[in-house]
Amino acid sequence: MYFLTYRYNNKMESGVLSRDRKYVIPFSNIFDSLDAKCPTNMIEFISISDDNLIDSIKRIISSDNVDKILGKSVVICAPIPKPKRNIFCIGKNYQDHVNELKDKTISDSNLPNEPVYFTKSPNCVIANEDYIENHSHITQHLDYEVELAVIIGKKGINISKADAYDYIFGYTIGNDITARNIQKGRNQWFKGKSLDTFCPMGPYIIHKSEIPFPVELDLSCNINGDIRQSSNTSHMIFDISYIISDLSQGIELNPGDIILTGTPSGVGFGFTPPKYLKSKDVVECYIEGIGTLVNIVK
Ligand code: MG
User: Fold this and answer.
1) pLDDT at 67 (0 to 100)
2) Which of 15, 81, 202, 227 makes a 20 to 30 Å CA pair with 295?
3) How much distance in Å is there from the Cα of 93 to the middle of ligand 1?
């Protein structure tokens, strides 16, 4: 099941795609047929969702007996347009990406012994087909990073690796846009990773029940049709269970929290000379089973 947030008749709502993915079924219609109170946004939906609710929604979608909206008539928003807090990110989580950073002075080329965490501001999330601002007055070194985003499904702290799967709601696609000169010029990555529009996300959240675990999905990034990144999530140095367990030691995770799990090689910065993004570039991030996140550089 593909969950989404969208605008329809000037109102932001959330819902789920029909099985043929041509229609959107608003949560309001689903919860009407369940005779239950409708959550007001995606985070609230994730907070109340459990196996029973997911099964009920699957039944409603299959029955085809619910009012729906033609997909073409909605404007897709980021699935979680306003995360409640910063987006957790993992740096250096694919070996080939660590290798390409060698001699680039952003970090050393050693494989990390523990996950390298940083965060992005929740204010930089944008939707599929939104423009990425080029911020050309402060950077000429705009870069892309396709990443699998894990959406946390329930509250938890000190989670074991064995239990990590229970805390996942689903997955979406993230693009960890980076101003390399700002990332490199400061001792902390936050600003270079958090300029406005620097976190394209979506278009949908796929529920975890649709993806075999551990997650082994092809992911790629094309710029104007030119393949730059191509790998598989099975190549992560620290897998999803490890990350959720490690991050949650001493930090409570909450429904709707987002974790970007790192990027494989092929970022613009890794080429000699570098291939940075420029105005009008079309950036397509693909993850098998989830879809394609498309954005244009303004
Ligand atoms: Mg990244």
Assistant:
1) 93
2) 15
3) 9
Same domain, 9 and 126: no
Tokens 């423009």 -> residue:
131
- CA 146 to centroid of ligand 1, rounded, Å: 8
Compute the distance from residue 16 Cα to the ligand 1 centre, in Å.
28
Residue showing tokens 């992005």: 120
Based on the structure, what is the number of domains in the chain? 2
CA of 48 to the centre of ligand 1 (A): 30
Question: Do residues 177 and 263 both lie within one domain?
Answer: yes
Side-chain half-sphere of 113: how many Cα atoms within 13 Å? 0
Tell how far the Cα of 184 is from the centroid of ligand 1, in angstroms: 14
pTM of this structure: 0.97
Place of tokens 């959330």: 14
Q: Which amino acid is at 10?
A: N
52 shares its domain with 101: no
Give 12-68 pLDDT, tens digit per residue.
999 999 999 999 999 999 999 999 999 999 999 999 999 999 999 999 999 878 999
Report the chain's terminal Cα–Cα distance, integer Å: 32
- Tell me which of 76, 109, 127 is where a domain ends: 76
Same domain, 30 and 122: no
- CA 261–ligand 1 middle distance (angstroms): 7
Give backbone dihedrals phi and psi of 50, rounded to 5 degrees, phi first: -140, 180
